[in-house]
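Need tokens for this chain, all 135 residues.
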Amino acid sequence: MSLLNEYIKRKLSIPELESELMKLILNYNKLRDTYLFVYAAAIGKPIPAVPLEQSDFYVIRDLLASKRDFKKVDMYIETPGGSGETAEEIVKFLHNNFDIVSFVISGEAKSAGTIIVLSGNEILMHGIHYLIHQE
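Here are the structure tokens for all 135 residues:
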């Protein structure tokens, strides 16, 4: 049975799910000695402005600006795509502020998301781990 099915079976409330997510992120950070940042768009939902856009860069920059004491950042990304220019700004920011930038993908990272992910030192996907040597 999958983790998602386990959570559905347990009928956790939103605050309980949030608490569980925070525990999982803390454990992940300890295991990888990193800071995990989660960026997930509402794929498949009729919500305006789901694609990656300039305002997303500002949010990412502002949230990660206080994490510069970390040498490594992992970014969980799930996006249907969006602005290539915004993707470039996100990539520049990440690589200018962290020594090692890795990406975790378990869903979709299309278009602009692909541009961002391909800039990483590591790409982690379900069942796959790519280590990219960049000089």
